[in-house]
């Protein structure tokens, strides 16, 4: 095996994560993380092993992926502990914010376990409405960096399997788990971590989800944990006004919902009642026009705060003048906080882009279901490790753009920039381990510096 050496702090973090695994298989985790960091091209598992210098015991590393997939939640818990210790409390904000969404990965071949046909959110030039592969319900922690704005730290993902695809393995007696909907998987992810966050920070948790998760099954379970849900509201949502408390109430429970229905179309189309504020959204200060009011909503089981935001030309250049509605299950949360939380949810979309384009998630070409679970979560965990490693580093250290005059110098360092810098530190750490007489030669130093510039 090649004598590559990770920076000490990253190696120590990997040791912390392996405490959730069996002692006999911990040694493989560090090797795979090193291969993921140094690999290039198509990021298959064999690419990881080649980059790490694995030769004879390559089959043991494939077996380790199955073990890691079964222990993914325990490893993610250790990663969550690590992230909480790394992020200063002052940078968490008034609420602890979590983002939920699902993303598919394309697969090929008829023998990929639990792969099926799913909706394709990004059809591309081909315009294909469906794709064959896996779908991952993913949870990210949204943290506001003092210099770079909102950053998502992906923590854990659960695989969604259609019931018809699961039935194939059930008939063979080899089904790895029972059927659960995306809403149930999302609620399970929130229940896994919300208590830990509340105990650590003594703050309430806001879960920001897409409108597809604004359903009773998900909302009831999340509200029961004490968390607050912010999501998009349908324009035809069945809203009612607040119930009137009668002075002389008869027998029975008090009313939970009002009698009069509320039309979002009328509220959003009315010209009066708009409030104008300046908020920092998507990394820059913008003018926002909104309306807010209280209503009762059956899927939540009580009162919600509704915020109608007008699509301004600054935010939505394609269709200015229209409006979109959001809601929060806690009526005491301000409208500004709801709008900012919705804008910060874009960080999880950036997470999906980075783990697929930068780390090659979905390219691993493994067929076992637990290997697929391990590979997707490994890409999420490496993304978080890179972000934590670069958290306190300056932008000048992470972005070297002297050879790219066409690039915007003021742009914040991308995740690819941070990963590239970590790769260079790994090579320097390995070079520093050489005997002094071997690394003191001028030609060797020049060759090493030229080699680090070739990292892509």
What layout of secondary structure does this protein have?
Elements: H1 8-17, H2 26-38, H3 45-52, H4 58-70, H5 72-86, E1 96-106, E2 116-119, E3 130-145, E4 149-160, H6 163-172, H7 182-201, E5 205-209, H8 216-224, E6 228-233, E7 239-240, E8 261-262, H9 264-269, E9 275-281, E10 284-297, E11 302-310, E12 323-328, H10 335-344, H11 346-357, H12 369-389, H13 395-398, H14 415-432, H15 436-439, H16 442-453
Parallel strand pairs: 1-5, 5-6
Antiparallel strand pairs: 1-3, 2-3, 3-4, 6-12, 7-8, 7-10, 9-10, 10-11, 11-12
Helix pairs in contact: 2-3, 4-12, 5-12, 7-8, 12-14
Compact description:
The chain is α+β, with helices and mostly antiparallel strands and 456 residues long.
Q: What do these coordinates show?
A:
The protein is of the alpha+beta class and 456 residues long. It has three domains: 8-210 and 345-389, no CATH class; 226-244 and 256-329, no CATH class; 398-453, no CATH class. It has 16 helices and twelve strands. The protein starts with 7 loop residues before the first helix and ends with a helix. The mean pLDDT is 86.
């Amino acid at each position: 095996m090649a004598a590559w050496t990770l920076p000490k702090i990253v190696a120590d973090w990997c040791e912390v994560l392996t405490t959730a695994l069996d002692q006999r298989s911990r040694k493989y985790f560090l090797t795979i993380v090193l291969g993921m960091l140094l690999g290039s091209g198509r990021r298959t598992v064999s690419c990881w092993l080649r980059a790490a210098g694995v030769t004879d015991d390559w089959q043991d590393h494939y077996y380790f992926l199955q073990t890691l997939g079964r222990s993914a939640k325990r490893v993610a818990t250790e990663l969550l502990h690590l992230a909480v210790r790394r992020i200063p409390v002052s940078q968490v904000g008034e609420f602890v914010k979590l983002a939920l969404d699902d993303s598919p990965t394309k697969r090929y071949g008829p023998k990929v376990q639990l792969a099926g046909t799913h909706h394709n959110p990004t059809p591309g030039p081909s315009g294909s409405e469906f794709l064959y592969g896996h779908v991952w319900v993913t949870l990210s922690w949204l943290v506001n960096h003092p210099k770079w704005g909102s950053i998502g730290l992906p923590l854990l993902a659960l695989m969604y399997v259609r019931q018809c695809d699961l039935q194939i393995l059930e008939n063979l007696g080899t089904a790895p788990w029972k059927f659960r909907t995306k809403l149930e998987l999302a609620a399970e992810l929130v229940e896994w971590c919300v208590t830990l966050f509340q105990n650590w920070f003594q703050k309430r948790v806001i879960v920001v989800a897409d409108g597809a998760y604004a359903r009773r099954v998900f909302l009831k379970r999340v509200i029961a944990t004490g968390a607050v849900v912010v999501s998009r509201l349908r324009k035809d949502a069945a809203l009612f006004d607040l119930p009137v408390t009668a002075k002389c109430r008869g027998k029975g429970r008090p009313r939970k919902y009002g009698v009069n229905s509320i039309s979002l179309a009328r509220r959003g189309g009315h010209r009066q009642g708009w409030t104008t504020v300046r908020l920092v959204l998507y990394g820059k200060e913008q003018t926002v026009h909104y309306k807010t009011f209280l209503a009762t909503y059956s899927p939540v089981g009580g009162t919600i705060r509704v915020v109608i935001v007008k699509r301004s030309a600054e935010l939505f250049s394609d269709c200015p003048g229209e409006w979109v509605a959001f809601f929060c299950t806690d009526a005491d949360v301000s409208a500004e906080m709801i709008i900012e939380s919705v804008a910060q949810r874009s960080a999880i979309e950036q997470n999906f882009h980075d783990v697929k384009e930068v780390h090659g998630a979905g390219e691993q070409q493994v067929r076992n279901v637990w290997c697929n679970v391990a590979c997707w979560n490994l890409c999420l965990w490496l993304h978080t490790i890179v972000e934590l490693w670069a958290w306190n580093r300056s932008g000048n250290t992470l972005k070297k753009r002297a050879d790219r005059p066409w690039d915007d110098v003021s742009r914040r360092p991308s995740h690819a920039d941070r990963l590239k810098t970590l790769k260079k530190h790994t090579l320097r750490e390995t070079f520093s381990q050489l005997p002094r007489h071997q690394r003191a030669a001028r030609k060797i130093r020049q060759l090493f510096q030229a080699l680090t510039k070739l990292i892509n």
